[in-house]
Amino acid sequence: MEDWVVKERWLNIKLLVDVNGSDLCKEMKNDSYAKHIKCVLLAHHLTCEKVLHLGQNMGAKILDLLEAEGNVIRRMGQWNPSVFYNSYSSKLPMGPIRKLAGYEEGSNKVYFNTRTIIYPTDLLRQSTPIGKWCYEGYNSLLGRIEETEENPSTAISFLRFMVDLNDVFLQDCAAMLVLHPERANHPLFHCVQVFDMPEWTAYVSTMKSAIESENNPLDANLESVIPGIQQWHNANTQSITCLSGKVEQLTDAVTKDSEDIQEQCRDQQRQSADTLMGVARTLLVSANGGDITLKEIEKGIEKELAIKQSTPTATTPALATTNEHEEGKYYLTDQHKSLYDLWDEWHGLGSFYDIHGGPAGRDATSGTKWRKHLDGQHYSRTKRIVVAIKCYYEQNRLKMEEGITQLDEWYQSTNRSVAKFVCECQCKGLLGTKNSQGRTKTLPASPNAAAPTAD
Known about the structure:
The protein has helices at about 30-45, 55-65, 70-75, 80-85, 95-100, 120-125, 130-150, 155-180, 190, 200-215, 220-225, 230-285, 295-310, 340-345, 360-365, 375-395, 400-415, 420-425; strands at about 325, 330, 435, 440. By secondary structure, it is an all-alpha fold. Helix 8 (about 155-180) crosses helix 10 (about 200-215) and helix 12 (about 230-285) crosses helix 13. The longest helix has about 60 residues, at about 230-285.
């Protein structure tokens, strides 16, 4: 095979020939090939009837274990009709082939194999069975092309493939000895001359170091790309841990406050029940055969409230049962502990019980006459907060208690200041703002206002 330019001198030479034959253009007979395959199977205690087309059978089983698609398996095992569309080699199932090579299914990531970057020396390459002729033929063909300007593309492609295949052969053999040392007794490593060379031992050692370190050149060192990223990450982790602790403390505080509010509500309910029971007793005493009039009911309620005021409870001071003092004038508290107290005071409920219904009832019956002694600004802010509460639970379709509970978080975050809370309600769209002429400018409110947070 000295002249690679003329195809007739090398194209018909068979790579798989009868080992006892002398004609390199005559392929190995099927019987001889099947006999050798059968010997290999018996040595490994494997049973297979179709030894001539072993690859078609075993390959299909391997693809089945790899969960390849059924049509792909049929394409691999059956070449007909029309000899697999006249060129079955061009219809290779690349999915299973890439999967066998190590690619992840359904992933577009670049696959990297460590052994492919460990190149053998020229002495090892030329000492293999095909290296003795493929390198010489390839180099001589390139030199002849430069001299004669011919372009035997088929010969160049074939020899280039054999050169690359020679590297793959050495790389895979070295990786096999590293990953599977028990295969060192395979006849292959005793029959081929290249495996007895000192250079081969050094090459296997280099391959072992590369595989054990498994340093992928496609991976970038993040610290070298972005200096200080590790320090920033550690600081960020510490901040998150600290923030988590504060959130837990806040959660515990909110839970405790919620329990206190619920206890206050239960106390108010008990007081209301006691008041109603006293009224019922008064009505039963007065109803001794005569009809009960509205005035008698009012007298009974006033009598029961007078008893409540003269006997303060352990949780509620006597003065907290009513806001009427100084000759019947009704006053507003400057600062409430929660929005529940503000709501009850405005409607004259609970510990702020008022027979006239608080400011809401007094406005309905007396107009503005009753509150001439009050601070107009404080009264206006309190009234706007009540309007914001109604707007919030109606827009979000909540119960009144649920709406007050959620808005109370905003109220506590403003240090229980009615002025600051009014500003918060304006920012959230629950209240309008006023321009310089005194007219109210309505802010757009979301149909489902977000639940308040104590930020």
